[in-house]
Fold this protein.
Amino acid sequence: MAFPNLKDLEQGENDSSGNEIMADRHQVIDLTYLNSRFVLSFKNLSYSVKVGPKMKFPVPICRKAEVETTQTKLLLDNISGAAREGEILAVLGASGSGKSTLIDALAGRIEKESLKGAITLNGEALESRLLKIISAYVMQDDLLFPMLTVEETVMVSAEFRLPRSVFKQKKQARVQTLIDQLGL
């Protein structure tokens, strides 16, 4: 089956009389018909949330509390970029800088009404149904122990994952080889 463009993916298959075939929600779609590689682009993404009012207690405390007006906090500020098929896109930044918020925006996990900017796939607006068909989202789950060194962390993993029959010296050698290969 050949789709002339990405929007046809959302429409599904039709039988010989033109009626849509009801397909299972979780289906495998062959995307090899596309001659071009996928390019997910995002341009001028901005996202802000309302921050609840804070209470101020003037002196003396027995007076009525003054309430500040509700403010907004900008989480994404005019972010643009692209992720191309076959390449690795790294999103780097300090804690609280908006990395997870950006990934949530690209994965369609933020309501469209509150997200400003454009997200496109091969130049076409990316709809949430199409996004669910062609992508997956894996939640962050930190499995690192902050009090351990890199070597200790990898060694803990080796102890759990390698068979008990592998001697400790052999495990240590494999850990060191991995650390050297990754440049850690």
Observations:
- Residues 7-134 form one domain.
